[in-house]
């Protein structure tokens, strides 16, 4: 896997998953533009990449505004002479149930995740089309956007929207040989540490305990477990893959389906409310779709002990 001569932007790459993505791309030879809202985190990310022998510069700015997107692309081109790869990872959480969610809670998450992805991809795609050598767009989704999750109206909407945009961009950018894919990661980060179900496993892993249930059954591991997929989708080897939602986490790799009709029924003249009242249950009742992310109860011998290793 050789990304030598390639130039990549990774938004939200000061810490966590974004930093793992940036370091992995650099490890395979790409030159990086890292991004974070925190100057110290951005500087540390640049230092981590350069200490490993890679090349990196930072743009410290929140994603969402068009000005940030322009700055990211301009920095890549002025520093390295080109752009090849964009990974849109930046994100925030403002979790609360629907009836307690404020306008600010909703707008903040939509602004960073959804608008931030849109503005960055628009700017990168415009440049890549003009450059005329193809390119790679990799947008970060979430299981929440695929299935929903309690208390995450804003986040679910943004992440579902990102996958919808990716499918559209795969169509629009195909003639320019620019691929667009969504990655659905499951990994221990500051965000997942707010969820007690996941935190028990990340804490156990930090203590050096094996967590096979988390890695296999849940597909939950470290940011580095997802980074290999990012590098692959950024490479020439993935030129034929576009418009896909691909999950990664722990020991597991998954390909998510696109929404499809699971049952179809016809009635001459269309369906009146009375027809639905009499026939909906018998026609669709056995095929209604589940919502939410299933969280299997760990077997007794798989659940980490809170006190172990302390």
UniProtKB/TrEMBL annotation:
Domain Ketoreductase: 6-194
Organism listed in the record: Georgenia alba
Keyword Oxidoreductase: yes
Name listed for the protein in its UniProt record: SDR family NAD(P)-dependent oxidoreductase
InterPro entries in UniProt: KR_dom, NAD(P)-bd_dom_sf, Peroxisomal_Beta-Oxidation, Sc_DH/Rdtase_CS, SDR_fam
TM region positions: none
This enzyme's EC code(s): 1.1.1.-
Keywords assigned by UniProt, alphabetized: Oxidoreductase
SMART domains on file: PKS_KR (SM00822)
GO molecular function, one term: oxidoreductase activity
PROSITE patterns, alphabetized: ADH_SHORT
UniProt record similarity statement: Belongs to the short-chain dehydrogenases/reductases (SDR) family.
Pfam families according to UniProt: adh_short_C2
Region span, Disordered: 283-310
Bias kind Polar residues: ranges: 283-292
